[in-house]
Design goal:
By secondary structure, the protein is an alpha/beta fold. The chain contains eleven helices and eleven strands.
Length: 296
């Protein structure tokens, strides 16, 4: 078997923990049924993400026969921000662990760095009013460096239901505070969402610190394909943190992006060319996501 064939085999076993799904305000490549029809046999599973709506109710048991699907919720304004009741409700309609992302488009950090709440280039072909970021209420995670009461209630809910906590687009300083409290409360599954992203830029020293505490560090294909971060820099971060603490995901689902299986294959191939071994790629694409999402 050639190295390329081995990579294809790894991708067929992979679980993509970060895939954007429609229907959504932002144009998306797939609905659930379209995703399953396209990706059956090409991936083992996907975690479905939507910036506005919980995704656990978007699919049924029948949809998961050919592709394992996991749902979740992003704590943006559309679901009431840091709303523990929304977290509980999302979990109630799932027989698998859910992923709870802290705010993305409505995080204080993201809005401060943006002109619009939704970037115009995200909305090609859709005519919806653009809201200026300065006019949008941000979801406040910390005040004076300390977690807000709402943030603590959400973390408590995540601990109660044994969900995956993902940090979303909050600042790396906020992520440190969230993780500290989450570990104190017994949260077992934590993902640091694409810390290499320019609007987060978590130092490597902090990533290594969190990895030692049991967190998974996420590296996404979209950081290379959309945000133009050099693949060499992504490989350097993986090597610094160590494959045992890294998960590779696609973060695709945009109308213009390749399918997740193709995105992950291209990502893996690029990293292989940077010296990341096949064994390391399998750990980051197969073993670690399955550990993260296993029923404890």
């Amino acid at each position: 078997m050639t190295d390329r064939e081995k990579l294809r085999s790894i991708i067929r076993q992979a679980v993509d923990i970060h895939l954007h799904i429609g229907p959504e305000i932002i144009p998306r490549k797939y609905t659930v049924k379209e995703l399953v029809a396209t990706e059956r046999g090409k991936l083992a599973g996907c975690v479905l993400k939507n910036h506005f709506y919980p995704t656990t109710a978007l699919f049924t048991k029948d949809d998961t026969k050919d592709l394992q699907l996991y749902g979740g919720i992003v704590l943006n304004n559309a679901v009431g921000g840091l709303n523990p009741e929304a977290v509980y409700a999302t979990a109630l309609v799932s027989n698998r662990p859910i992923v709870v992302w802290f705010p993305t488009i409505n995080s204080e950090q993201f809005l401060r760095a943006s002109k619009y709440e939704l970037a115009p280039e995200w909305l090609k072909g859709k005519k919806i009013p653009l809201r200026l970021a300065k006019d949008v209420k941000s979801v406040i995670v910390t005040q004076n460096g300390k977690l807000t009461a709402s943030a603590k209630r959400v973390v408590n809910a995540i601990a109660d239901i044994d969900a995956v906590l993902a940090t979303g687009h909050i600042s790396w300083q906020e992520s440190m505070a969230v993780v500290k409290y989450a570990l104190e409360k017994g949260v077992k599954r934590i993902v640091i969402t694409h810390p290499i992203y320019q609007r987060i830029a978590m130092p490597i020293s902090r990533q290594k610190e969190l990895a030692k505490k049991g967190c998974y560090i996420e590296q996404c294909f979209s950081m290379y394909s959309i945000d133009k971060i050099p693949i060499k820099k992504i490989a350097q971060q993986i090597n610094a943190v160590g494959a045992n603490s890294v998960i590779l995901s696609s973060d695709v689902g945009q109308a213009f992006s390749p399918a997740p299986s193709q995105s992950l294959y291209e990502f893996a191939n690029l990293l292989f060319e940077q010296g990341i071994s096949l064994d390391e790629l399998k750990i980051m694409l197969v073993s670690n996501p399955k550990k993260l999402l296993s029923s404890l």
